[in-house]
Design goal:
The chain is mostly helical and about 230 residues long. Helix 1 packs across helix 8 and helix 6 packs antiparallel against helix 7.
Length: about 230
């Protein structure tokens, strides 16, 4: 096989994986949105989730377990199992995010979604097209994210409005940077994938990664643009 044929094969594989990544990410977002809308309009479900603090806590722990489990065991899972876990996580996230539709006006949620989508799309393009290695940026954003998580826990006790807004804008910057870094990482890994099974599982893992970037970017932006009911 000539160099040109190898290059063409790698480029085709990259396009295939990238298309699958964004398709599955979109499916995950649709599942989350559908479950959130259904839950917000079902009083019995709202009572079950928010009427008992333990239920909400169990859902959050289940979400964390699914993310960690899917990321850690992706190589041992079948593509079907990986896809099912991703969709299950998306549905659980819809349950816990249903409060957003009750707390904020629908117009501000819609506006924030458009802003988040525009920022996410722009940074994805940057990640795919830039020649600069964004690995260092991604590592920096992860360290800053840990700081934001710790700061958010501390602010539960401080209840500082100024610190809250500092963490909010930091969160927007962090997930904007992570979107570009993760998009480039997916591009790089897709060139190394071999076999249809690996391609499918890589697409699911990539979809999960970008799904998390988008959801968190959306939630931090909602703090800024959201208007309460």
């Amino acid at each position: 096989m000539s160099y040109a044929e190898i290059y063409t094969d790698v480029a085709a594989r990259q396009r295939t994986i990238v298309n699958q990544v964004y398709t599955w990410m979109a499916v995950g977002l649709l599942v989350t949105a559908g479950v959130a809308v259904f839950t917000s309009n079902t009083p019995a479900l709202l009572e079950l989730i928010y009427g008992n603090g333990w239920t909400y806590l169990v859902l959050i722990l289940a979400e964390l377990g699914l993310v960690v489990g899917l990321s850690a065991a992706i190589n041992r899972l079948s593509q079907t199992a990986a896809t099912a876990l991703f969709l299950a996580y998306s549905a659980l996230n819809g349950l816990t995010l249903s409060a957003v539709l009750l707390y904020y006006t629908s117009s501000s949620v819609g506006t924030t979604f458009v802003v988040a989508a525009a920022m996410f799309g722009s940074m994805s393009v940057v990640g795919f097209l830039t020649k600069r290695d964004l690995t260092g940026l991604g590592n920096l954003m992860i360290m800053l994210l840990i700081g934001v998580i710790v700061g958010s826990i501390i602010n539960i006790f401080l209840a500082s409005s100024g610190f809250y807004w500092l963490l909010t804008f930091a969160g927007v910057i962090i997930f904007t940077g992570l979107t570009a870094a993760d998009a480039q990482k997916i591009k790089r890994l897709s060139a190394q994938a071999d076999g249809s099974a690996n391609v499918g599982k890589l697409a699911i893992l990539g979809a999960l990664t970008l799904y998390l970037d988008f959801i968190n970017l959306f939630l931090f932006l909602l703090r800024i643009f959201g208007r309460r009911n």
